[in-house]
Amino acid sequence: ETGVTQTPRHLVMGMTNKKSLKCEQHLGHNAMYWYKQSAKKPLELMFVYNFKEQTENNSVPSRFSPECPNSSHLFLHLHTLQPEDSALYLCASSQSSTGYGTDTQYFGPGTRLTVL
Amino acid sequence: DAKTTQPPSMDCAEGRAANLPCNHSTISGNEYVYWYRQIHSQGPQYIIHGLKNNETNEMASLIITEDRKSSTLILPHATLRDTAVYYCIALSSGTYKYIFGTGTRLKVLA
Questions:
Q1: Which of A4, A101, A106 has the CB atom closest to B93's CB atom?
Q2: What is the pairing mode between strands B104-109 and B9-13?
Q3: Whole-angstrom Cα distance, residue A79 to residue A77?
Q4: How buried is B41 (Cβ within 10 angstroms: 0-12 exposed, 13-18 middle, 19+ buried)?
């Protein structure tokens, strides 16, 4: 248990559906991240939020819409996805994504998304 | 951030030490070496990190060469539950961009 929870753990959706992934961290961190891990590929950073402000969008298609209402919660809203968006979506948090020294990220268990 | 190179796979007998190498020959002075592991279809788990000195915690030891061009993660007594993909990452101080490669798939054999 890392202190980062994600729901749901598994999600199957059609291409016309709208769904949301939720991430919550109980570590008192100020930065939160969304990663995507497709089959047989390395993790790819999607979005970064630092103190609720988005500081990174790694050229992610607009059908993925993140939301960070506070430092403890992060959502990923999904709409009109494609089958190639099927992947493991991982949330992580860290103390802060700026500043000096190290900033260890702690990951949640992930949401396995299947788009039909 | 420095690129890291790891062997794609390794086997280790249960109860023996697992030594996982990582090459980071272009690492700069302010880049830390981080290790994570990912058990099948779960989120990556933080193991250990270091800058220059060797580090040890309850999970593993990290040995960094004096020139910092390579490091070795040591799991002192591997168990079946240590079977996972292990990632070595070089991270600049003050940045957050973890660049995950394909890692080393460690298989612990009974």
A1: A101
A2: parallel
A3: 7
A4: exposed
Q: For residue A67, is pLDDT > 80?
A: yes
Q: Check if the beta carbon of residue B98 is closer than 8 Å to that of residue B32.
A: no
Tens of pLDDT, residue by residue over B71-106, are 999 999 999 999 999 999 988 777 777 888 889 999
- Can you tell me which residue has the tokens 């394909």? B102
Indicate yes or no: CB of B44 within 8 angstroms of CB of A107: yes
Lookup: tokens for A3 = 């202190």
Nearest chain A CA: its distance from B93 CA (Å)? 5
Please give the structure tokens belonging to residue B85.
């993909």
Contact B98 A109 (CB under 8 A): no
DSSP H helical ranges for A2-106: none
Of B59, B101, B90, the C-alpha closest to B48 is: B59
